[in-house]
């Protein structure tokens, strides 16, 4: 049959075997059961382990289903783990851009409300002025660059946000379906988002996606600061800052999807 | 003109990392790999030194590739390393004669009997403890048949991880730096050289020991890369240096596997009356050495790892915070994680851990909270001792290390210490300290003052705990410590 991918079929067969005999199967047994070369079974198991769908018992070297399968509806990345992975790159972004850095992830909002943006990590602007930690704060997803990046790559979440209604925070806040859809399409096209005075007057944000394996967007990293520092006189994002933000997003994505130790 | 970079190696207890820094001390690339911990018997902790070297070699390649750099763009390599961990290898083949004995390993407790604590403290600044390298080397010499005579002839060599890596990187240079040497318990703090009295006390032949050099000078060149190796410094001292704690009174606490608080005391060593360690902070080339007071917490991040690997209550270390944040207190439960005895200021090698205050109300979330609180209360114990020794009251705790990613932990530390907790812009201060030392040695940076300009605050947590609650919980923590000591005393 054209267009079907054999390795996915084989992977699903491996998963069914693992579900059938939890914690009991070795690579060789799986290879024999599916009539695959051992090296092929080994590659499939290594990949499934990498994405969290399989786990190997360190003592017996036997395989079982991974815990990521229990929780397919989430992104598979704990918010605090996302912070642990972003720490170094968020610091580097702050020192390169000279601005505050935020890392955000979407989480379910209160009943009847759409998903909201959780600030997972916050790095102060590197000027040693008095600033307060905003880690743990919840922000409106549609009115911030971080939130727009996340909504751009999460169609269902964007629908939920639209269904709950878009609250206006400033005169610049995106409040219509049409405007948000256009903003999200532009974000996908350029690979980053700019929001100017959409949440707070006088402030702007630039954000880029953080991806894990397979390209799944699990978070966003961005900078936040006064409009005149982030934008030029035509209120367009300064290209050097965009480059720093996008590079930070890429570096974290490489860490998250890179080779396991 | 294209700029050059500094490459730092941080060979830690659970992982090795290789970080490329630019002139503004910004991370350009980072590669890391975990290595296995081996626990062959209760109290034993071992590493495969050959595996660690293979990891480091691969990480250098990976970091350069990620940074898009060739080796000629690297001005110098600096090494920071887990301290005290003991490797003995054959001079001829470079093969380790046994697994490395890790600093946490307590197998040598029987060898402490009969050691004169006053002689040790006077000469080394350190109390008798299994922690330091001396008893570990002694144990290997006593346990491996024929090793002692080879050691006498200089056919086998001892080194901490810095020596082991430099030996391998340079193809046979046997040196260590003064900070690492100060943790072997074989170096005299006054002469900064191997002490004949101590060598005799531990029955360790001088022929197997490396040459002691400063923390920042060109030791040699890395084979195949052609890059000078220009710094070696114990990881905690490296963090002090990376936090630019260059003035007496500057202090930092690094949270990793363990927790380590170091206070710069200037060019004269300060002796502690409260169970802290006197150690060499750093020495730049031929400048006078700078000393530090150190209080260490044996178990911090490793308690979180135990929750993950030993108990299986969490899937990743970062999930401890998620779990702990589902409750607002510890439910009356306290964990004293004396897995390898109690360190500063108690110094009880024989004590083992306890979990106290259990009721059917306590859930795994309360345990997770107690895990984080244990790190905070242990910090409080060390800070209290340091305040007493130095006669100063700590006004801010500068923190770094992987566990600073745990926001809830940092808030709890601020709460129990009742001082603000501040994180600098580069969390990887251990690597940064090694990079700074190497960069100063080769003139990449000209002056330590230049380095201070790179330092900015990235985050700060303010105490919010009610003082009465803090006092009550502190008293309960002290009872939990007493319970651990009582339980472990036959």
UniProtKB/TrEMBL annotation, chain A:
Residues 5-67 form the HTH iclR-type domain. Pfam families: HTH_IclR, IclR_C. InterPro entries: GAF-like_dom_sf (IPR029016), HTH_MetabolicPath_Reg (IPR050707), Tscrpt_reg_IclR_C (IPR014757), Tscrpt_reg_IclR_N (IPR005471), WH-like_DNA-bd_sf (IPR036388), WH_DNA-bd_sf (IPR036390). It comes from the Bacteria. Gene3D superfamilies: 3.30.450.40, Winged helix-like DNA-binding domain superfamily/Winged helix DNA-binding domain. Transmembrane segments: none annotated. Residues 68-258 form the IclR-ED domain. Keywords: DNA-binding, Transcription, Transcription regulation. SMART domains: HTH_ICLR. This is IclR family transcriptional regulator. It comes from Actinoplanes palleronii.
UniProtKB/TrEMBL annotation, chain B:
InterPro entries: ATPase_NBD (IPR043129), Carb_kinase_FGGY (IPR000577), Carb_kinase_FGGY_CS (IPR018483), FGGY_C (IPR018485), FGGY_N (IPR018484), Glycerol_kin (IPR005999). PANTHER family: GLYCEROL KINASE, SUGAR KINASE. This is Glycerol kinase. Inhibited by fructose 1,6-bisphosphate (FBP). Belongs to the FGGY kinase family. It catalyses: glycerol + ATP = sn-glycerol 3-phosphate + ADP + H(+). It comes from Actinoplanes palleronii. ADP binds at residues 13, 17, 257, 301, 402. The gene is glpK_4.
